[in-house]
Amino acid sequence: SDGRFAADSPIGIFAGLVEKHGLKPTGANTGHAVLPFSMVSNVALDLQLPGTLRFFDELKPDVLVYDSMILCRDALFAARLRGVPAVSLLTVAGPGGYADHMT
User: Fold this and answer.
1) Using CA atoms, how far apart are residues 1 and 16, in angstroms rounded to an integer?
2) ∠ CA 32-99-92 to the nearest 5 degrees?
3) Cα separations (Å) of 94 from 7, 52, 85?
4) Which pLDDT band, with edges at 50, 70 and 90, does 1 fall under?
5) 69: closest CA among 41, 94, 50, 28?
6) Global pTM?
7) Nearest by Cα to 57 from 83, 19, 21
8) Is residue 8 within 8 Å of 68, Cβ to Cβ?
9) Rounded to whole angstroms, how far apart are CA atoms 103 and 95?
């Protein structure tokens, strides 16, 4: 990020954009936080991608293993733009584990 949002948290840029755009998570479960994050995900990608591309250019990875949830889209796009194979991890455990995110 360019320093406008909290860098001390993996959700810092998303939380900052949600606040900046006046979006409010409602309800008590995870899904209500995921929806506003999805609404700002393309703005976050635009802010994150240049730094992620610089990181890829410096590191020159052979492969990317990444969390496929909404917070890591920049890594996938950087890998595709640099021709690096990418493998996603599903970090929501067990059958039905994702249901809480969408209800």
Assistant:
1) 11
2) 95
3) 30, 30, 26
4) very low
5) 41
6) 0.72
7) 83
8) no
9) 15
